Amino acid sequence: MKAIRIHEFGEPHVLKYEDLPEPQPNIGEIRIRVMAAGVNPLDWKIRKGYIDLPLPITMGVDVSGMVDAIGPGVENFNLGDKVFAKVLQQQGGYAEYTISNASHAALMPKTTNFIEAAAVPTAGLTAWQALFDIARLDKGQTVLIHGAAGGVGSFAVQFGKWKGAHVIGTASSHNQQFLQSLGVDEVIDYRTQRFETVMNDLDIVLDTIGEDTFERSWDVLKPNGFLVTTVAAFPEGAAEAHGVRAKRIVSQPNGSELAQIAKIIDERHVKPIVTEVLPLVEARKAQEMSESRHVRGKIVLQITSNL
Q: Which of 99, 147, 235, 255 is the most exposed place for a label (fewest CB within 10 A)?
């Protein structure tokens, strides 16, 4: 099979288009014939060596495709099922075949194609776990989402509206109409307005930007509000000093939560946003675009031309 691998950490030139043996599923695993693979900031962070993993590495964690082989003990999938999954970093998604733990995969939404489904796992799970598993967002609460037009942000906006929350997003003016199409209640142009001068007493802030944006978010929360970040590290005791709660999220594979997300996609409450589709051989370009941090929605690699 063909796959995108790295044998050293570094810039995009270290990505290599290679031949590999097809993997075989073990107990509790399925093999997926990959049709499309989502591109995430995690991918280029791994490529640069920010995460300590043994080399060589097959890139990518988000996939959609068809169940091609089933390991012992798997009873919830059949050959030919259309699935999507967040696979483990050691298994890789930028490849014609990959292995997933059966518990990490779910049946694709019936209303999406493979390209759209591949955009969901990491970004969708990150937004879902941040808002619901960690911050416990509920109807009537107010949530501020930094980077609302990005992969995680665009899912978070839609999840928040589905839940019945008042959703505010920070983004450039270029993305205002896009976010309004997703249902956002208010958009703050981070280039012309400082959110902390117009926001206060919020229940939840979801930060996907970090740095100064994260630091300025403490004071817009109500007492005991929740600051969830996908990127920032903060010193022990910082949340208590501000009278709020805080946690950094690292999303985890979860097939049952993917199934819940698939259900609300099929109910038309949420739609995956894909703005760029590239062939597998253009993985370098895809990661360069992701690293620019100015992508609306998601980038997806099309693994096969027969979709």
A: 235
